[in-house]
Automatic annotation (TrEMBL):
It is found in: Cell membrane. It comes from Actinopolyspora biskrensis. The chain crosses the membrane at residues 21-45, 57-75, 82-100, 106-128, 135-154, 174-192, 225-244, 302-321. This is Ribose transport system permease protein. InterPro entries: ABC_transp_permease.
Amino acid sequence: MSSDTTTSPPRAETRSTRQRISALLAENGALVGLLVICLAMFIATPEFLTARNLLNVGNQAAVVAILAFGVTLVIVAAGIDLSVGSVAALSAIGSGWIAATGLPGVLGLVGGPVLGMLAGLVSGLAVAYGRLPSFIATLAMLSVARGLTLVISGGRPVLMPPEINWLGAEIGPVPVPILVMLVMFAITAFVLNRTVFGRSLYAIGGNHEAARLSGLPVKRITARAYALSGLFAGIAGLVLAARLESAQPQAADTYELDAIAAVVIGGASLAGGRGKATGTLVGALVLAVIRNGLNLLNVSAFWQQVVIGLVIALAVGADVLRRRVS
């Protein structure tokens, strides 16, 4: 008789433990996935976990991660930014053009990100005040920015001054792009977690109408989010150009897809209201690790595109499933 009365509590405790484990995996799924992928790559090629190769992975992830941090701000507010790759190229070309005119290279270092911020602001104003769908507004900016890049450069690469090229150098054994990526990560995390602006982005993404009725300046905050996304794209463009020591008119082509993928892989929701800087960083590292590992395994670049596409599809599918369950 006494044994029958003690069977229910353990079951309740088991269910609670399973719920905690499920919640933990849901919250840190991207990190778990990254660790699993790293383990698989190490088993397939021990060269993967060498210090030199890991620094190379971080260097490869830097540009996409910086772009993705800016995109995270937009996606948290239930928007999308398809223009960041083209804006990055435009910013780099603009910086090189400023230096080519004989002006101090420092002006190019500042002018590129400012140009990116202005491009993002135009998209943000079109979305917030022009009421254009974010997909359409940023798709238009993608075309405009790429066209301006070709017009300014004449379709030719533009050399970058030393004041910018240091962004592609190394400090000791650590590539500068990794350090820039970490700084931008810290800024993004601070904005999202410690500022009124960041909390407002979550509120807008969670329920746009409720945020408006509560008194938040939704249009102004939305425009600022896109402006910051453009600023981040400008910085990413400079880092990419510094690594190549020249700004290429076709640089960062399709990088916007990788940036969006990194944000979604990191656990953000395309419906808005969910996302964090840590997840985005992990998402960018996942993409870089997959590409790096496949390169070490001598997998064709064509098949690499197939694998990356499948990873993106799985990440978006997981987001859809998560929203249905919640």
